[in-house]
TrEMBL record:
This is Uncharacterized protein. GO terms for cellular component: centrosome; lysosomal membrane; midbody. It comes from the Eukaryota. GO terms for biological process: double-strand break repair via homologous recombination; mitotic cytokinesis; regulation of cytokinesis. It comes from Desmophyllum pertusum. InterPro entries: ZFYVE26. One of its GO terms (molecular function) is phosphatidylinositol-3-phosphate binding.
Amino acid sequence: MNDQPLVTHPFDREEEDALQQLFTSFCNHLTLGQWELTRVCLRGLFEQRNKLNKPSKEILRAVIDQPHHASYGSQSIPSPFHLSWLCLVEYLDLFTDEEDQIPEPIVKKVEFRLLLYLACQKAPQNVIQDIDDYHSQIVYRDPDLFSSGVSDLPSSTLSYLKQLLSESPQFGRAVINDLTSKGKGFLKNNQFIAATLCGPHK
């Protein structure tokens, strides 16, 4: 009589194995840029979050903070900035307790970087970097504590913003609106940006 291979089944680990398979599917779909399938897996992981070795909110936060390393991208996730924003939307919907809230500066940066990607696809990389750096000064620093030391936008960047405002007014106004701050430290720059892009007030 030939020896038959033993059939193994994780009778005592079915739930654990199913959860591991769900997490593996989440990672695979995320890597391949299959957002809708990623979202389905994410929701399933959230429902079983108390059984995960790594908290689901930490998984989402990691993707929000480091989207460039999480996915190859696809038609549904055309850029890391889209992925970061999509995960942010899911996070804000799933985690509503005050202790789980993402700091407002991070939310603003995620939203602004997606806007910058959509609005400035033809911009030189140094211009995009200048705009992003300036915006970081606004969201990460208390402008009232910095009456001096706020970096100006280079003339080449202001010229690009003026061009953007002319060619795509809606995007241009959205970007410029995010580059103005009510803080005292930015008042001079706000006036300079307005005068350069829109002309002097009459």
